[in-house]
Amino acid sequence: MPLQALRTIAKPQNGVGAFILQCKRIDLHYCDWAGSSKGMNDFLRTTLPAFAKQNPSIELSVSPRPGRHPVVKGLYINGQHKSICVRNMEPAEILRKVELLTAASGERLRRERRPVKSTNESVRGVWDPFHGHNYKI
Amino acid sequence: MLSLNLKRALLESRLPVPPTFLLPWAASLTTVSHTTGAGNVPPPLLNTVQQVSAEEQAAGSVTRKAQTPKPKRVDPTTTLARSATVAGTERPTTPSTLFSSPVAPLSESVRDLLPLLQAQGSHYITAHIHDRPYLITQGDTVRLPFFMKDAEPGDVLRLNKATNIGSRDYTLKASAPAPKLKSATTTTRMVLDPTTGSLESHSRVMPATSLDSNTAGASAAMAVAPHFIPHIAKGKVSYLDERLFVCRAVVMGMESEPMRMKEKTKRRNRKIKTVRSKHRYTVLKIKEVRIRGVEEIEGGGELA
């Protein structure tokens, strides 16, 4: 009988092969008139260029949003948004928020009880009462 | 049943085993050196060869913690007997093996069974991060219970502390940890003082600590802890040899839990204080779980 290949679909495993950052775009909105946007304006002038250079895979978009508080919004590969209002924040704080958006995935915040999540089959096989119950490791 | 038979067959067939070079998988293994002749071995290494052989023969069935061989789950008496006799005869004639694996030679059971473990399809490993065990296979996602500040998304971490590696039928376990140290006060003894006359006098004697070099009373059973041991470093777990496996994880990013509110108040007191918590956790993806071959380990190549 000739050798037959198994019919399987490739399992997408981000990180096992290549690693792709989940955050693909960050929108930064500022306002020239609002006092709450002062930190944001300074951030855009001073800190943002260096951040952009360090993260070339993220698309950054800066646009004015007059009359409103400054906001940073992240868009993720799974299509979800995360937005953080950065009113009255210093540039260093805003950088921390932007880094938070970079490191996050688009998943909802969830309380995980178990640390390890796996979709692989069990290595030692599922227990059954007929095999090896006398043998203890 | 199949796995039991497999193990029994393995145990029984090991006794009349042909020499290593005749075994099919070990045909390429050789203890003959091609680069270093007996005359070229530098004097310090020669000395260590003789020292190690003397120690091995003297040690017999006692395994030292620092260079402990890692027995698999086979009959322990046969393993140790074989390692003592084989090691004793092998050492003086083959300085090249010591040159290639300078730190610690693999035990017989590991050398025999590691290829079988490696050949089986899937593997799991119990890796320890800050002494907490995680049972992982390749492709798993691990959410650590803490946030790693310096780890950016995309960084690759090498996990080198592990206690178990297993496949379907074989498990490689680390050797037993050292016996628990007792504090000096719990091992205090009442000793009769050598006094003259009919008056008996007892005094309490603490066993010798490492500072007191004269009295050699600290035997292995009565090993005493130094004055202060932090509660973390009590030596509960011993780990596998790093050279046996490769386990890599990628930092995927950070996730946080939903905001938690804890209300703190006392009875009959209307003031309620609210504490908000929103912890952050690092998420890893296990990139690689691989067992290295015997040749790769003993060849002393760089830890890839």
Automatic annotation (TrEMBL), chain A:
SUPFAM superfamilies: Thioredoxin-like (SSF52833)
Domain Ribosomal protein/NADH dehydrogenase: 32-105
GO annotation (BP), single: mitochondrial translation
A GO-annotated cellular component: mitochondrial large ribosomal subunit
InterPro entries: Ribosomal_mL43, Ribosomal_mL43/mS25/NADH_DH, Thioredoxin-like_sf
Main location: mitochondrion
Keyword GTP-binding in annotation: no
Location(s) in or outside the cell: Mitochondrion
GO MF, one example: structural constituent of ribosome
Keywords noted in UniProt: Mitochondrion, Ribonucleoprotein, Ribosomal protein
Cross-referenced Pfam families: L51_S25_CI-B8
Family: Belongs to the mitochondrion-specific ribosomal protein mL43 family.
Protein name: Large ribosomal subunit protein mL43
Protein species of origin: Oleoguttula mirabilis
